[in-house]
Amino acid sequence: MKTEIVLKEGYPFILTSGALFIISIIFGFNTILQLILFLFFVFFVYFFRNPERVPEDESEGAVISPSDGEIVEIIPQKAPITGEEMIKISIKLSLFDVHVQRSPVKGEIKAIEYIHGLFLSLNNDKASELNEQNRVVFFNGKNVVVNQIAGFITRRIIMFVNPGDVKLSQRYGMIMFGSQVDLYVPKDTKIKVTEFQKVKAGETLIGFLNEG
């Protein structure tokens, strides 16, 4: 299957802003307004980009980052859906990160749970608990959970796949316009990242699942 350079989910934004920019030129709108419309068009093309990604490590047990962004927290915490005590790795995205999420492991999507909630700022301590979110359980001998969390601007979380087999680094969903992704891995995972490290979805090695 051919990979989209720009996600089709972005077409309405790209086409609308592009059409408005062309109209502004045809009808001689204010130059500043033309520039603003052009910048919106460029931003939407950039935001909905879908670059190819190659995992840093494809060996058995490798866990790859599900999201672009900066790791803001690594703490022990109970995972949603499974209720297991795990290690939570929180990744905060900026508007300029790629917003596509990718499978952190090769295996199977066992469960998907969408929670309708609030749209608090991600700086709020309650955001990861109360905000709208989409929880996905991946299984590769052990459970790995990824939680897509909506932010203040975000109003849409998208899933591209249904429960079933997935490849390592396979695109499975996205969050619109700024957000946070929490990755939950087993407590005995050998973590290879640190807080405040920048990571890339489908590329950066997070750690290795303990095969014992």
Write structural notes for this entry.
The protein has 212 residues and is of the alpha+beta class. It has 2 domains: 8-47; 62-208. The protein contains 3 helices and 14 strands. A hairpin with a 6-residue loop joins strand 2 (69-78) and strand 3. The protein is elongated, with a radius of gyration of 18 Å. The two termini are 36 Å apart. The model has no long low-confidence stretch (mean pLDDT 90).
What's the arrangement of secondary structure elements?
Elements: H1 11-26, H2 31-47, E1 62-64, E2 69-78, E3 85-93, E4 100-102, E5 107-115, H3 127-130, E6 133-139, E7 143-150, E8 157-159, E9 164-166, E10 171-175, E11 179-186, E12 190-191, E13 198-199, E14 205-208
Antiparallel strand pairs: 1-14, 2-3, 2-13, 3-11, 4-10, 5-6, 5-9, 6-7, 7-11, 8-10, 12-14
Helix pairs in contact: 1-2
In short:
By secondary structure, this protein is an alpha+beta fold.
- Largest sheet geometry: 8 strands, antiparallel
- The coarse silhouette is elongated
The tally of beta strands, per DSSP, is 14
Strand percent estimate: 35-45%
Judged by helices, strands and strand pairing, the structural class is alpha+beta
Number of domains: 2
Number of H/I helices:
3
Q: What's the rounded overall pLDDT mean? A: 90
Order of helices and strands: HHEEEEEHEEEEEEEEE
What is the spatial order of strands in the main beta sheet?
9-5-6-7-11-3-2-13
Helix content: 10-25%
What's the end-to-end separation, in Å? 36 Å
Low-confidence stretches are none
Radius of gyration of CA atoms, rounded to a whole number:
18 Å
Observed structural traits:
three-stranded antiparallel β-sheet; 212 residues; eight-stranded antiparallel β-sheet; alpha+beta; 14 strands
